[in-house]
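Notes to self after the call with IL:
- keep both proteins in one doc
- input above output, always
- annotate only the second one for now

Protein 1:
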Amino acid sequence: MPIVAPMDVDGFVVRAGFLGDAAYVATGEGAIHFVAVGETHLAPHKNGLLAAELSTDGTSLITSGDDGAIYASSPDGSSELLAERPRKWIDLIACGPNGAVAFASGRTAWVRLSDGREKEFAHDRAVGGIAFAPKGLRLAVSRYDGATLWWAGTEGKPVNLTWKGAHLGTSFSPDGKYLVTAMQENALHGWRLSDSQDMRMTGYPAKVKSFSWSVKGKYLATSGANAAIVWPFFGKTGPMGQTPLQLGTRSDVLVTAVACHPKEEVVALGYQDGMVMMSRFEDNAEVLLRRPGGHPITSLGWDNAGLRLAFGSEKNEAGIISLQDG
């Protein structure tokens, strides 16, 4: 039976996961909790914490806040100020290769390179989401009526991808062939980057706020329905013409967070009522990890071995679920 070890946190959990062997939880109150052999508690932001992402080398947690600051924090208790935009709310961050960090506020996105140099990218409309390509310093910025692809390391011309509507959270597929955005409406949109071919993924009863790529990038798991909607991305046309998997279906409770397993084609699902479940792609076999009865799950994150799962909710709830006794 899975073992649930609760963590003592206050407020909305922005991000939960693992940094090496240490579990972490970052809350909207501004606190960062690391739990390994002991516990470390940090509060680098003067006010609230708005976004958190794991660095690509897995050594630090990058956070931003309504104080306009971006910090890199580690389980050893250290926090380094990476960049600062006074009087701006930095609510979008992304981590790229070689220590690059992107962040955005309003209509502007910035990239901080590992040597401290920064590049600015201005847009006509507000930035809705940012993401780095898996290879190279290519940055995707989603916005109203589409997305823009920038080369952060060179002066190459940007590429504009167009689709009417407001585009929010964005993600590259692990092979770099596709870009997917969550829209203001209850849908996803995608582009095949080789030819800018559009891909529409609709039918959601709610907005998609969480998505996660499977271990080999063959599937994209998403929230926003009463099951995890898992789109196939293998073949030449991606999800077009293919039926998505529906995993962990419940009759009247929405999936609010998803996290694909790091080694197996399995996804963890968090629900509106605080329940956490694990489901296998192949046969929809399910394992209950946490019983319902709490607040909506906001974040899920596996450790590298796929044996522990961190979770957090909208209000004062977080913990670590261990799949093995002991």
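Protein 2 (the one to annotate):
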Amino acid sequence: MTLDLLDRRLLYELDLNARQPLSVLTKKIHVSRNVLIYRLNRLRESGIIKNSFAEINSIALGYKTFRIFIKIGNCSPDERKRLDAFLMSQRNLTWFSRVLGEWDIDVLFTSKDIEEFETFRNSLFLSFNSMIKDSHISLLSRIYCYHRDYLLGKERKEVIRKVLGPSKCVPDSKDEEILYLLTEDGAMSALEISRRTSLSVNTVIKRIHTLENENVILAYRVFIDTNKLGYQYFKLHIFLRDYSQKDIIALRHFLESKSYVVYTDHYIGGADFEIELHLKTEMEYTDFVDSLIERFGRIIEDHRLIKFYEELLFRYLPLRVE
């Protein structure tokens, strides 16, 4: 599917706020309601837009997210399918992707209970140690989230940064009910949330505003299939040396200025900076790395690349136990 500027503007606006009413979108994009609905349906039917969701600060809810990189040794297709089925069956798994590079699989396990992760880890390695050649575990500490300014084909002039990290807010069980619903459908109406939570509409609206203001709800976005959009999903891990706080600030500002940088991640036990990028070609990636090394080579000790090529599972919170 070939996208024109109208499609890209629509995707950009939905990435800014997937809860925007159609009436607001029509004014921003300067099209009729019928044209907007047609374009939106076409993007959904083509699979470019998978769904909408609320980007949730899981750390503020008391969750810990463990990442496991896995390198697979020689194994049969049936053994690989058995591993995939095991991973997909885990209600606490919030990310599962196949990657190219140093590792073959990247998974995230999110839980409030470390023992729950330990049980999962033991089960994984007891069941599949014969095919797991190597692995590495780290703990998520912070993510800086940016909007997809590259959709408009322009440099990023204004940095809109959301941080997945500590928050002073202490959401209660009703807040979590609302958050779970918004991770399933970021555009779900307050009326529908009211019906499902047995709260009044006004209470729902008030709670949502509080969660937004307290950095628990970071954004309302659409899940975009980057491959169908014509982009590749790269992740660069850089390891630093002999750096100062001034260097860190300069590096972050440099990364934030690039419209194709969508996340910078920080893990305890991971690289110093993990940079997620949406780019069309490998040449664009190498150009970015060259510019990074030219500017910050003095403090970069090493850098490694993985490339996401198949995202099998993505959600911000574990599945609820019914």
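Annotation: The radius of gyration is 20 Å. The longest strand covers residues 132-146.
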